[in-house]
């Protein structure tokens, strides 16, 4: 029997072609995600960056888990006196607990959520401009040396890689008239300020501008109130801390904004210096040490953006990308606080957004043969440049006298405990940031969990000195070593890459 539906079904060959294409794209996506995970986990047990900030954070969490010391605030922000809420500590505390104090556990967790961010990036690209946009964006984010490094960083800005891309997703859901989208946007904006609170402050005007442009999509005034409440709720930890310690946070914020002249309207004085920095900031998210090589692709990107502007601006999803991509660039033209210093990691919440905008613009013209060739050349250079950079950074020898690596830190502490042979000892450390939080934590963790003995504070004959290479200020290290000569006589010495450990006999002056 001839059913009317049959004539609407595609021919078997067409259906088979679609299935093959679907499988190919999904296999390719899985391969990209596996590559991203491999690059982020490669030698992480050796090269985990566990330094000043990581040791400081770990000590707070250790005291919470083992001594019951609660916390409302988290790490200090870039300027003195202001603290983020405790959200970052709350996020990674379960993994310090599960790992029995091992920093690798929270680090791997952050790597996993940064990989999830790439999957969300793909889905966004697919929704905004098609699968090709999603695949290109995912590939760039997966292999980018800079994004890989940011994903491996055991620090509070790292979660904003995921938060930022979820924020764009929530804004698209707002366009789909989902009632819960605007409250989620409010919460994500507030949350981003708890993990980074640098240029993510410009999420606020970006959201306000876009929501104003699409104000007819707002379900009701109740939703605005709920969204504002969820945004403010993320600051409850700082609010409670301020109640307990009046003036500590509010005073620091007031000084930063008004007394230190953080923002200025005379931005033309700094625009000449800032724009070259912004170009470097942008291109380094694709590959590093190749600004000249990236320049033709950047010029093409800007040209395509201008040529297709009318067409692009008619698309609300493009508006989201463009407003969020330009917000920090425009906003920081007014910023002269923090002694005028702006660091790349301040923009962590924009890395994936920039990549998505670039991929969308390029793939919008990918049907043209010349653009296909351009994209092909770009992808080849992208992969080759990042392979070379990755090899240089992550194939470093642990024996290199400049290498300060996690496995070397553990080996140095193991050496101390093995040669102390059950005896009590003191330890004195020198690290370039001056305060040896990293070693204080590692001794606390390993001394408690593995050796059941901690260094003593009271001066005793057996002293171990541990110091790291300080190529930027060798005179400081030398002054510290000269001081140690009057404190103890060296009996044994061992080097672990850029870390030197010495067993000393303390000199007691009469």
Q: How does this model look, in words?
A:
The protein has about 500 residues and is α+β, with helices and mostly antiparallel strands. It folds into two domains: about 30-395, no CATH class; about 405-505, Translation Initiation Factor IF3. Helix content is about 60%, strand content about 5%. The chain has 22 helices and six strands. The strands form two sheets. The protein has a four-stranded mixed β-sheet, with helices on both faces. It has a two-stranded antiparallel ribbon with strand order 1-2. Helix 21 links the parallel strand 3 (about 425-430) and strand 4. It is globular, with a radius of gyration of 26 Å. The model has no long low-confidence stretch (mean pLDDT about 90).
SSE blueprint and pairings:
Layout: H1 12-41, H2 44-47, H3 52-67, E1 73-76, E2 83-85, H4 87-98, H5 104-129, H6 131-143, H7 145-151, H8 160-175, H9 181-195, H10 203-213, H11 221-233, H12 236-244, H13 248-259, H14 268-283, H15 291-307, H16 309-313, H17 316-331, H18 351-363, H19 369-394, H20 406-420, E3 426-430, H21 437-449, E4 462-468, H22 474-485, E5 488-496, E6 499-506
Helix pairs in contact: 1-5, 1-6, 3-4, 3-21, 4-5, 5-6, 5-8, 5-18, 6-18, 8-9, 8-17, 9-11, 10-17, 17-18
Largest β-sheet summary? 4 strands, mixed
Compute the CA-based radius of gyration. 26 Å
Q: End-to-end span in angstroms? A: 111 Å
Weakly predicted, low-confidence segments: none
Strand order of the largest sheet: 3-4-6-5
Number of structural domains: 2
Total beta-strand segments: 6
Q: SSE order, as H and E?
A: HHHEEHHHHHHHHHHHHHHHHHEHEHEE
> How would you classify the helix and strand content by structural class?
alpha+beta
User: Helix tally?
Assistant: 22
Percent of residues in helices comes to: 55-70%
Cα shape: globular
In terms of DSSP E residues, the strand content is 5-15%
The average pLDDT value, as a whole number, equals 90
